[in-house]
Specification:
By secondary structure, the protein is an alpha+beta fold. The chain has helices at residues 3-11, 19-26, 35-40, 54-71, 74-81, 122-130, 137-142, 152-168, 189-201, 246-253, 263-270, 274-278, 281-286, 291-300, 312-317, 343-351, and strands at 50-52, 99-106, 109-116, 176-180, 206-210, 215-217, 220-223, 226-228, 230-233, 258-260, 304-306, 322-326, 336-337, 354-358, 363-365, 376-385, 388-397, 410-416. Strand 6 (215-217) and strand 7 form a beta hairpin.
Length: 417
């Protein structure tokens, strides 16, 4: 991050969120009635913005492309899929909507700390980015969004169309279900509603459905008597192992539904054991990754190791410099900073399936003029489709990992300096 962006994040206390504009956006459609009130009572949106330099944006784009080109290699895919469940071997065609690349921004450039296949927040962040106002002359000059917000919904619909075409060709797009367990009780349920509204505007029949209410019958996936042709998958049962998801699993294996994202995408992108490969020079060389791409990955992916009995003693000794994550975890669940570890938690890690990642400290954003110590940690999420960064957004938080429980924290727009 450049000095200008760092200084703005450390010194500027502008509150740029225009809540009235946010309300107007979220009240424009009767289908979203009450959505603003739902969001207003959560620490979902920060009132401030995060600044990054154009140089950092370029570095993020290059790092994403380095990852994507590596993951496209047959050697990489064979290596990863050799240890993945059988369901991940199926390649139905789609490549996965709303991939999430999460970065910490440091003095040496952006650090890719993980990749998520069903990353939440894209639609909410587009609304948030439009609801910003300049509160001073300097801010008016600084507000430059990182995406074409006027056309981003068209791009997102085209993304769903592309996923459909990769599996179904030129056939007209069918009914879409946005699927999760207990969707109405999910923290980001408002985003499901926004996605439903977006797809409906383009003439697509779309519902929000509980995955456990889906039925596999007569060769079709059904919900309340309606055939489901495509599923936008928000489940965290990444390999569809849960018996409650048997209908969706059967439909997917039978090629009866277009599923995005799906188990193969998770195995290739989001299993955190992949970070071991992406941060290891010898493995990258063996896979045939070219020298320039290797250098980008080694500079931008913090060194990551598998945790096992043979290196347990060494990792415990180095723990203060490491972050421990479950290999197939999500949402920072059961993830631990090494300097906070107790022996009891360490035994749990050793008994589980964990990776140890070198800590890449997050940068900070001050959020209050009245409190000089109000700086919150931040990370930047890139919403990516087929290697293209469609939108960048930040998350502000206090504590070990990102959360939506911090006063003044939550999602924040990214402005390019």
């Amino acid at each position: 991050m450049t000095t200008i962006a760092l200084d703005l994040n450390r010194r500027c206390t502008c509150q740029t969120l225009d809540r009235q504009h946010l309300y107007q956006q979220l009240s424009a459609d009767p289908a979203l009635h009450g959505l603003f009130d739902t969001l207003a009572h959560a620490h979902l949106f920060s009132s401030t913005a995060v600044f990054v330099s154009a140089h950092t944006i370029t570095a993020i784009n290059k790092l994403v492309m380095a990852v994507e080109s590596t993951l496209a290699l047959t050697t990489y895919q064979q290596s990863v899929l050799a240890h993945a469940p059988a369901i991940a071997q199926l390649d139905a065609g789609p490549t996965g909507v709303f991939m999430g690349y999460d970065f910490h921004l440091g003095a040496t450039g952006p650090q890719l700390i993980e990749i998520n296949t069903n990353a939440g927040g894209a639609l909410l962040n587009a609304v948030l980015a439009r609801a910003q106002k300049a509160c001073c002359t300097e801010m008016a000059q600084a507000i430059q969004t990182n995406a074409d917000l006027a056309h981003i919904e068209q791009r997102w619909f085209a993304m769903f169309q592309r996923e459909w075409q990769l599996q179904r060709g030129d056939a007209p797009i069918g009914r879409i279900a946005i699927v999760d367990d207990d969707p109405a009780y999910q923290y980001l349920y408002p985003e499901f509603q926004l996605c439903q509204q977006l797809l409906a505007r383009f003439g697509v029949a779309v519902i929000i459905a509980d995955a456990r209410d889906l039925i596999w019958e007569s060769g079709t996936l059904q919900h309340e008597g309606q055939c489901i042709d495509m599923v936008y998958n928000r489940l965290t049962d990444f390999y569809l192992d849960d018996s409650a998801h048997a209908a969706l699993r059967s439909a997917y294996l039978a090629n009866a539904v277009v599923l995005t994202p799906h188990p193969r995408v998770y195995a290739l992108y989001a299993d955190k054991r992949n970070l071991v490969t992406l941060s290891d020079a010898a493995q990258l060389t063996a896979l045939g990754v070219d020298e320039v791409t290797r250098a980008q990955l080694l500079a931008g992916v913090p060194h990551t190791q598998l945790v096992h009995a043979d290196n347990a003693e060494a990792l415990w000794a180095q723990r203060r410099k490491l972050f421990f994550k479950p290999a197939t975890g999500y949402g920072s669940k059961a993830a631990y900073r090494g300097d906070k570890l107790t022996r009891r938690v360490w035994e749990t890690i050793l008994a589980g399936d964990y990776v140890a990642q070198k800590i890449a400290p997050p940068s900070e954003r001050i959020v209050s003029a009245e409190d000089a110590d109000s700086a919150l940690k931040l990370d930047v999420r890139g919403y990516v489709y087929q290697g293209e960064v469609q939108l960048l957004a930040a998350r502000l938080y206090a504590g070990q990992t990102t959360n939506f429980r911090t006063p003044g924290g939550g999602f924040a727009p990214v402005f390019v300096v």
